[in-house]
# Entry
Amino acid sequence: MTYNEVVKIADAYLLPVVSELYGLEGYVTRLVKAHPGGRNVVYTCEKEGLSMNPRGKYCRRI
# Structure
């Protein structure tokens, strides 16, 4: 399975379920750009006015 295939599956099926399970509705989820040869698919979730860590991001790795 390629990186792009994993991203498509995550976007279509996994992210909506994870967002609902963890109460992340209203957050903006963005894919973090992979480094060359990287195998992890990482997203950041941001919500204005609410900090999950010092940079205001909640990070999940798929």
Notes: The mean pLDDT is 81. The first strand starts at residue 28 and ends at 31. The longest helix spans residues 3-21.
